[in-house]
């Protein structure tokens, strides 16, 4: 591995467990606009540079954006003094896209209009990332997403797009392989919420099950936000599959789990990192949530002593609990800051252009993050990204290990 430069991040190793992996959803509302805004630096000396952190900071998917922001902010605070020594005051601007593709565009346009913004950590979800990327691409403004998993995001040929997490085609196929080989599943009913993330995952699971000879007894899309899924659940119960796979988020998954259990389904539920929320257990009920398995692009931060120490330091320093994308928000900001430093050096110590920052980030190779190592391929996908498995047991999330 290549030795990191002077700004390499200090701390732990490994990763944290869902979502949203990355997809769309949420409601419309005006983006938070504080053009130079959300500074974590306290306005120190030096030429100002702004890195935006974008995701759902409010609404039902706020866990995804707010936890990524907390990790990114922590990483930036650790490096601000080093950047001041280089003559720059690097600030953070947090923006709320509500996990809504339209809001993603509005936020992107606002950020583009601020010449101090040189990079974006985000967006957190796939739908908003795709629409925002079209805007950033016009201005060569680089983005590094901690959690947008949709395969289409990096298949559109936009050089500005990067992510440190695994793609849905990796997550979906590995989930299906795990279900067959480790859980012994021979038949499954597959559902999805008709959104970019949920449907993308479900289609990848279907493809892998078909290749491996697992019988698919049904494939149905449902409308997210419904309160009664009995029509499709009656279908499922009559076909008696060993597993229900639902591609979507915890808010719908919790209702589906509860209603299916009430109708007598005793088999396995499975989904992606959209299930990674204690609210799924609250909605479904702790007993009903037993035997709910989900994959995530983030591993267990506390699986090592080093990771436990990082959690302790983070929580003591910030007053926040480590959440679903705290670790990947931290490493995404680390990648961005590493690229920014390289761009400053390549530009003779002067403020780099957006395109120079983009070039430096795009060339990231063997970056040793605290929770995931990063080498971007030409598409902007991380060659070191992995998929992990969790389950709910007695109301608690239990880490199983890497999906094999």
What would CATH call the class of the largest domain?
Answer: Alpha Beta
What global shape is seen? Answer: elongated
Number of domains: 2
- Structural Rg: 21 Å
Query: What structural class do the secondary elements suggest?
Result: alpha/beta
| CATH H-level superfamily title of the largest domain | Response regulator
Distance between the termini: 25 Å
Query: Main β-sheet: number of strands, strand sense, barrel status?
Result: 7 strands, mixed
CATH fold name of the largest domain? Rossmann fold
CATH level-two architecture of the largest domain:
3-Layer(aba) Sandwich
Q: Determine the strand fraction and express it as a percent band.
A: 15-25%
Question: Unreliable segments (pLDDT under 50, ≥5 consecutive)?
Answer: 1-43
Beta strand count:
14
SS summary, helix count: 12
Q: Average the pLDDT over all residues and give the rounded result.
A: 90
Question: What share of the residues lie within helices?
Answer: 25-40%
The neighbouring-strand order within the major sheet is 7-6-8-9-10-13-14
Protein name: Branched-chain amino acid ABC transporter substrate-binding protein
Family: Belongs to the leucine-binding protein family.
Domain Leucine-binding protein: 50-395
Keywords: Amino-acid transport, Signal, Transport
Q: What would you say this structure looks like, in words?
A:
It comes from Brevibacillus agri. Belongs to the leucine-binding protein family. Residues 1-21 form the signal peptide. The protein has 404 residues and is an alpha/beta fold. The protein folds into two domains: 47-166 and 303-384, Rossmann fold (3-Layer(aba) Sandwich); 169-296, Response regulator (Rossmann fold, 3-Layer(aba) Sandwich), CATH 3.40.50.2300. The chain has twelve helices and 14 strands. It has helices at 62-85, 101-112, 126-139, 168-181, 196-212, 230-239, 250-262, 278-284, 286-289, 305-318, 326-346, 354-362, and strands at 47-55, 88-96, 117-121, 143-145, 161-163, 187-192, 215-221, 243-247, 268-271, 292-296, 367-368, 373-374, 388-393, 396-402. The strands form three sheets. A seven-stranded mixed beta sheet has the order 7-6-8-9-10-13-14, sandwiched between helices. Strands 2-1-3-4-5 form a five-stranded parallel beta sheet, sandwiched between helices. It has a two-stranded antiparallel ribbon with strand order 11-12. Helix 2 packs parallel to helix 3. The radius of gyration is 21 Å and the shape is elongated. Residues 1-43 have low confidence and may be disordered.
């Amino acid at each position: 591995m290549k030795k990191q430069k002077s700004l390499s991040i200090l701390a732990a190793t490994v990763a944290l467990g869902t979502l949203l992996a990355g997809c769309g959803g949420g409601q419309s509302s005006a983006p938070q606009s504080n053009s130079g805004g959300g500074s974590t630096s306290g306005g120190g000396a030096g030429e100002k540079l702004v890195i935006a952190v974008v995701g759902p900071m409010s609404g039902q998917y706020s866990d995804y954006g707010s936890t990524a922001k907390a990790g990114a902010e922590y990483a930036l605070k650790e490096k601000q003094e080093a950047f001041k020594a280089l003559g720059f005051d690097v600030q953070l601007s947090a923006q709320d896209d509500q996990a809504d593709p339209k809001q993603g565009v509005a936020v992107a346009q606002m950020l583009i209009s601020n010449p101090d913004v040189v990079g974006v950590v985000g967006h957190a979800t796939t739908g908003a990332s795709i629409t925002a990327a079209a805007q950033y691409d016009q201005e060569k403004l680089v983005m590094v997403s901690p959690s947008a998993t949709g395969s289409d995001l990096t298949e559109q040929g936009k050089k500005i797009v990067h992510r440190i997490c695994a793609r849905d085609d990796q997550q979906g196929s590995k989930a299906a392989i795990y279900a067959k080989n480790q859980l012994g599943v021979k038949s499954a009913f597959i559902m999805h919420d008709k959104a970019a993330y949920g449907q993308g995952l479900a289609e990848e699971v279907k493809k892998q099950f078909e290749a491996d000879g697992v019988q698919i007894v049904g494939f149905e899309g449902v409308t997210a936000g419904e309160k009664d899924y009995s029509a499709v659940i009656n279908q499922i119960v009559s076909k008696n599959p060993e597993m229900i796979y639902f591609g979507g988020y915890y808010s719908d998954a919790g209702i589906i789990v509860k209603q299916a259990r009430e109708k007598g389904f005793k088999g396995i539920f499975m989904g992606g990192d959209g299930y990674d929320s204690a609210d799924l257990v609250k909605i479904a009920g702790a007993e009903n949530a037993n035997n709910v398995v989900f994959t995530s692009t983030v591993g267990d931060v506390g699986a090592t002593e080093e990771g436990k120490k990082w959690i302790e330091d983070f929580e003591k320093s910030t007053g926040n609990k480590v959440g679903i994308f705290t670790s990947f928000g931290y490493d995404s900001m680390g990648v961005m800051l590493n690229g920014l430093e390289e761009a400053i050096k390549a530009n003779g110590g002067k403020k780099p252009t957006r395109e120079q920052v983009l070039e430096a980030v795009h060339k990231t190779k063997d970056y040793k993050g605290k929770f995931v190592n990063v080498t971007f391929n030409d598409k902007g996908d991380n060659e070191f990204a992995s998929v992990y498995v969790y389950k709910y047991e007695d109301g608690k999330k239990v880490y199983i290990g890497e999906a094999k």
